[in-house]
Amino acid sequence: MTDSVLNVVLGLVASAISAGLGWLAQSVRRRRRLGRVREFFGMPDGTECLLVVNHHAASHSSKSVSRNDVYALMELSALVKECGAHAEIVAHDQVRQGLGGKSEFCLGGPASNTRTAAHLASWLPGVDFAVQNPDGPFGDTTITVGEREFAYVHPDASPGGQTYVLLARLHPQPGSRPVFLIAGQTATSNHAAVRHLVANHRALARRHGKDGTFALVLRVVNARAYGPDVVELAADVTAAATTRTAPVAA
């Protein structure tokens, strides 16, 4: 074998080894990334999770779901598929099971989701959703956490309006599967919170721990113009949300 042929062979072997090592490194990174996603959301490969669906507040049918809530469910379903888990979609008034056995994503505020109302009363007693105008739109709601208020502002009343959503991760017992609560003032804010959760889970895990409880209020910026795409953190209300409000003295 001449030197030139030997050099070609050695070059091909070196290229094959380099390509194999690069592929192996990428595979390891993908597995590690997927492992972190599964750990944060509590969805190991082959497990089941629960998607709790609210009803459309403006509809007279209990089986009607807002279009933006459907979009949010689609993005959650894609996340579940990525983790290799299996989703069970259940209406909010049909859930009859406790917490911890399955990861749960509960969509919608307490006015449209009775499961959300139960989670708030049990695990986030410092949070209150108050309808300011019973005859107004469903979004005419103020989220109160401790002494802070986050009031819905209609786009007609202010340029772009102002919409908030409570995004919380509940972990009642060590070792149990988490519950993710997405309770917004509108369906668009629900969708925005789901996108924020999926896109920023690594940052949330670093800030709050891989199995910690957190409660955040997100502000949806000009939903009429930007839809659910532009979201900012309004406040971390974990401490106030998990603290039961003291009764007012007579």
Explain this structure to me?
- The model has no long low-confidence stretch (mean pLDDT 83).
- Helix 2 (67-83) links the parallel strand 1 (48-53) and strand 2.
- Helices cover 38% and strands 24% of the residues.
- The longest helix is centred in the N-terminal third of the chain and has 39 residues, at 3-41.
- The protein has one domain: 2-Layer Sandwich (Chitobiase, domain 2).
- The protein has 250 residues and is of the alpha/beta class.
- The strands form two sheets. The protein has a seven-stranded mixed β-sheet, sandwiched between helices.
Q: Helix proportion of residues, in percent?
A: 25-40%
Structural class: alpha/beta
| Overall mean confidence score, pLDDT | 83
Q: What's the shape?
A: globular
β-strand number: 10
Going by CATH, the architecture would be 2-Layer Sandwich
The first-level CATH class name: Alpha Beta
Query: What is the fold named in CATH at topology level?
Result: Chitobiase, domain 2
Question: What proportion strand?
Answer: 15-25%
Low-confidence stretches: none
Sketch the topology as an H/E string, one letter per element: HEHEEHEEEEEHHEHEH
Terminal-residue CA separation: 100 Å
> Taking strands numbered 1, 2, ... along the chain, how are they ordered across the largest sheet?
2-1-3-8-7-9-10
Summarize this, please?
The protein is α/β, with parallel strands linked by helices.
Defining key terms:
alpha/beta; 7 helices; Chitobiase, domain 2; globular; seven-stranded mixed β-sheet; 38% helix
